[in-house]
Amino acid sequence: MPKASIKGSLTVCMRAGRLRLGMDEVKSAVRQKTVYGVITASDISKKSLKEIAYCCGREDVPLYSAQMTADEIGAALGKVYAVIGVADRGFMGSMEKSLEKINYSKE
What we know:
- This protein is an alpha+beta fold.
- The chain has a single domain, classed as CATH 3.30.1330.30.
- 49% of the residues lie in helices and 15% in strands.
- The chain has five helices and five strands.
- The chain has helices at residues 3-15, 23-31, 46-59, 70-77, 89-96; strands at 19-21, 37-40, 63-65, 83-86, 100-101.
- It has a five-stranded mixed β-sheet with strand order 1-4-2-3-5, with helices on both faces.
- α1 (3-15) crosses α4 and α2 runs parallel beside α3.
- The longest helix is centred in the middle third of the chain and has 14 residues, at 46-59.
Protein backbone atom coordinates (compact mmCIF):
# COMPACT_ATOMS: atom_id res chain seq x y z
CA MET A 1 0.00 0.00 0.00
CA PRO A 2 1.60 3.28 -1.03
CA LYS A 3 1.81 6.29 1.27
CA ALA A 4 -1.25 7.83 -0.38
CA SER A 5 -3.35 4.79 0.55
CA ILE A 6 -2.13 4.86 4.14
CA LYS A 7 -2.91 8.58 4.34
CA GLY A 8 -6.36 7.91 2.91
CA SER A 9 -7.01 5.11 5.40
CA LEU A 10 -5.87 7.30 8.29
CA THR A 11 -8.14 10.13 7.11
CA VAL A 12 -11.19 7.87 6.85
CA CYS A 13 -10.40 6.29 10.21
CA MET A 14 -10.08 9.74 11.80
CA ARG A 15 -13.42 10.86 10.37
CA ALA A 16 -14.97 7.70 11.82
CA GLY A 17 -13.56 8.69 15.21
CA ARG A 18 -11.42 5.55 15.47
CA LEU A 19 -7.96 7.13 15.95
CA ARG A 20 -6.25 7.99 19.20
CA LEU A 21 -3.78 10.79 18.58
CA GLY A 22 -0.68 11.86 20.49
CA MET A 23 1.55 10.08 22.98
CA ASP A 24 -0.57 10.51 26.12
CA GLU A 25 -3.87 9.54 24.53
CA VAL A 26 -2.33 6.54 22.75
CA LYS A 27 -0.58 5.28 25.89
CA SER A 28 -3.85 5.54 27.80
CA ALA A 29 -5.71 3.65 25.05
CA VAL A 30 -3.01 0.95 24.98
CA ARG A 31 -3.31 0.46 28.74
CA GLN A 32 -7.10 0.27 28.41
CA LYS A 33 -6.69 -2.20 25.52
CA THR A 34 -8.91 -0.13 23.21
CA VAL A 35 -6.49 0.01 20.27
CA TYR A 36 -5.52 -2.78 17.87
CA GLY A 37 -2.22 -1.26 16.78
CA VAL A 38 0.00 1.77 17.19
CA ILE A 39 1.59 3.59 14.24
CA THR A 40 4.61 5.87 14.60
CA ALA A 41 6.10 8.45 12.27
CA SER A 42 9.50 7.66 10.78
CA ASP A 43 11.04 10.74 12.44
CA ILE A 44 9.83 10.01 15.98
CA SER A 45 12.51 10.66 18.60
CA LYS A 46 14.36 7.68 20.03
CA LYS A 47 13.10 8.52 23.52
CA SER A 48 9.46 8.64 22.38
CA LEU A 49 9.85 5.43 20.38
CA LYS A 50 11.32 3.67 23.40
CA GLU A 51 8.47 4.96 25.59
CA ILE A 52 5.67 3.81 23.28
CA ALA A 53 7.45 0.52 22.51
CA TYR A 54 7.65 -0.22 26.24
CA CYS A 55 3.96 0.54 26.69
CA CYS A 56 2.95 -1.58 23.68
CA GLY A 57 5.21 -4.40 24.82
CA ARG A 58 3.62 -4.54 28.27
CA GLU A 59 0.12 -4.76 26.80
CA ASP A 60 1.04 -6.88 23.74
CA VAL A 61 -0.17 -4.30 21.21
CA PRO A 62 1.48 -4.37 17.75
CA LEU A 63 3.70 -1.40 16.92
CA TYR A 64 4.29 -0.20 13.35
CA SER A 65 6.21 2.48 11.47
CA ALA A 66 4.21 4.39 8.86
CA GLN A 67 7.42 5.11 6.92
CA MET A 68 6.16 8.71 6.71
CA THR A 69 7.32 11.74 8.65
CA ALA A 70 5.09 13.42 11.22
CA ASP A 71 4.64 16.29 8.74
CA GLU A 72 3.40 13.90 6.05
CA ILE A 73 0.96 12.36 8.51
CA GLY A 74 -0.06 15.86 9.58
CA ALA A 75 -0.89 16.76 6.00
CA ALA A 76 -3.52 13.99 6.02
CA LEU A 77 -4.87 14.58 9.54
CA GLY A 78 -4.66 18.35 9.81
CA LYS A 79 -2.24 18.32 12.74
CA VAL A 80 1.21 16.83 13.22
CA TYR A 81 1.30 13.59 15.23
CA ALA A 82 4.17 11.15 15.69
CA VAL A 83 2.11 8.48 17.50
CA ILE A 84 -1.31 7.21 16.39
CA GLY A 85 -3.45 4.45 17.87
CA VAL A 86 -6.00 2.67 15.67
CA ALA A 87 -9.14 1.69 17.59
CA ASP A 88 -10.78 -0.26 14.77
CA ARG A 89 -9.83 -3.84 13.95
CA GLY A 90 -10.86 -3.55 10.27
CA PHE A 91 -8.88 -0.40 9.57
CA MET A 92 -5.84 -1.81 11.38
CA GLY A 93 -6.10 -5.05 9.41
CA SER A 94 -6.19 -3.25 6.09
CA MET A 95 -3.28 -0.96 6.94
CA GLU A 96 -0.95 -3.42 8.67
CA LYS A 97 -0.06 -5.17 5.41
CA SER A 98 1.77 -2.08 4.22
CA LEU A 99 3.22 -0.91 7.52
CA GLU A 100 6.64 -1.92 8.80
CA LYS A 101 6.32 -3.82 12.07
CA ILE A 102 8.62 -2.65 14.84
CA ASN A 103 9.97 -5.46 16.98
CA TYR A 104 10.40 -4.65 20.64
CA SER A 105 11.42 -6.65 23.65
CA LYS A 106 8.79 -7.33 26.30
CA GLU A 107 11.06 -6.48 29.21
